Structure formats: structure tokens, C-alpha cells
Amino acid sequence: MIGQINLLLYYLKIKTMKITLNRINDEYLFQCTNAQGNSILLDNTTQPGAKGVSPMESMLMAVAGCSGIDVVSILKKQRQEITGFSAEVEGERVVVDDAKPFKSIMVKFMLEGAIDPKKAFKAAELSFEKYCSVSKTLEPNVEISYEVFVNGEKV
């Protein structure tokens, strides 16, 4: 009985997410909007004058955003003083039939401030191994690696 209650509680925590996508010009420009009304523009970046990011670039942005939120959250809980935070993400693609999915993704975190380098590295490790839903979604097919720099020094 306890196992069934735990299973039910687990399923109640699962959230369904929904976005809408609307074409907003005569070409390939789309506006994607979430339930709160926040939006991004997606476009075919192989065409001149693209006004949005490509869907594959948005995946790299999602990895950076998800893991970045995790890292900042973990370090704030540890009372680390973050005065600067940025990330660079590179994705290597391969040809599979007619598609070009990511084979690997490398994330570089650059942090500034009064931050213990070991805590910064552990925060990144926890993000990718436990918390980042985006990287966990990609993980079965994409190798994700990371580097952490604190005040310009690689950890």
C-alpha cells in the first residue's frame, strides 16, 4: 500500500508543459510562446536575414540555461558571492540519414566572484548528473561534458 501511495505521489508531481508555435512571416520565422506569455523567435538561420535562432541553437541555449540556473541556485544556497556568470556551449553534429543531430555538447561555465572553485565544480557536476532536465533528456544520445572557470582559472 505504501508503495502505491508513493507511486501516486510521484505521478502527481509530473508536470505537463505546453508551448504554442505561430508562423509570423511568409518565410520560416516562428514565435514560440509559453504558458506565461514569454516567447522566443525560431528561424531558418541558413537563410539571409534570419531574425531568430535555429531550433538546434535553441537546444544549446536550453542546456546553458537549465544548467546555469542549477549552478547559480546551488552556489547561492552555499552563500557563494557570484558577481559574474556566463556560459559558452558548443555542439558537434553528425549526419544521420537526412538529419544532423548533436553527437556531443561541451559547456564552459565562467564564474566571477568570491567563489570556492571546488564548490563551483561540484555545482556543475550536480547539475549534469542529477538536476538538469534538458541534459537528462539529451543524455541517452548526446555526450555532454563541461568545464568550469572561476575568476579566469580552470577548475
Task: Characterize the structure shown.
With 155 residues, the chain is of the alpha+beta class. The protein has two domains: 13-53; 55-154, GMP Synthetase, Chain A, domain 3, CATH 3.30.300.20. Helices cover 36% and strands 32% of the residues. The protein has helices at 2-13, 55-77, 117-131, 133-138; strands spanning 19-23, 30-34, 39-42, 81-93, 102-114, 143-150, 153-154. The strands form two sheets. The protein has a four-stranded mixed beta sheet, covered by helices on one side. A three-stranded antiparallel beta sheet has the order 1-2-3, with no helix packed on it. Strand 6 (143-150) and strand 7 form a beta hairpin. The longest helix has 23 residues, at 55-77. The model has no long low-confidence stretch (mean pLDDT 93).
What's the layout of helices and strands?
Layout: H1 2-13, E1 19-23, E2 30-34, E3 39-42, H2 55-77, E4 81-93, E5 102-114, H3 117-131, H4 133-138, E6 143-150, E7 153-154
Parallel strand pairs: 5-6
Antiparallel strand pairs: 1-2, 2-3, 4-5, 6-7
Helix pairs in contact: 2-3
Question: Could you provide a short overview of the structure?
Answer:
This protein is 36% helix and 32% strand.
Question: What attributes does this structure have?
Answer:
alpha+beta, GMP Synthetase, Chain A, domain 3, 3-stranded antiparallel sheet, 7 strands
Integer tally of domains: 2
Please compute the radius of gyration using only Cα atoms: 19 Å
Q: What is the structural class?
A: alpha+beta
Largest sheet: 4 strands, mixed
Strand runs, count:
7
Low-confidence stretches: none
| Mean pLDDT over the residues | 93
Secondary-structure element sequence? HEEEHEEHHEE
Our measurement of the CA-to-CA distance between the termini, rounded to an integer number of angstroms, reads 47 Å
Strand content: 25-35%
Share of residues in helices: 25-40%
Q: Could you say which overall geometry the principal axes of the C-alpha atoms support? A: globular
The CATH topology of the largest domain comes to GMP Synthetase, Chain A, domain 3
